# Entry
Amino acid sequence: MFKRLLVAFLLVPLVELFLIIVLAHFVGWLVTIAITVGSSLLGAVLAHRSWRSWWGRVRDEWSQEGFPVHRLGEGAILITSMAFMITPGPLTGLIGILLTIPGIRERVSRLLVRWLSHRLLARFWP
# Structure
């Protein structure tokens, strides 16, 4: 696990730096900086709207049927998308923006819940 995290923390910044250099080569540094900052701002606005929408659905479902456990995966993905958008760079900005789109977020949430449930079942009930 430690090795995977180490590779991720080393690989992601290198990929981001490579993409920034390539993007700057084709469109210029000023446009590259504008794209990077713009994607972060757009992502922040989308994340705020998505969070409010998600929290509204959680409150509605909570008042009708109890705590909606199935919405926890979406909340975790929204928090992850916000972390991606805080990280400067075109790749993480794009991933963060994509994760704020409700359709994509719901599909990723289902995949995440399925993956976690299989891991937990394999670990505790061999």
User: Anything to note?
Assistant: Helices lie at 2-27, 29-65, 72-86, 90-100, 102-124. The mean pLDDT is 85. The chain has one domain: 2-124. The CA atoms of residues 21 and 29 lie 8 Å apart.
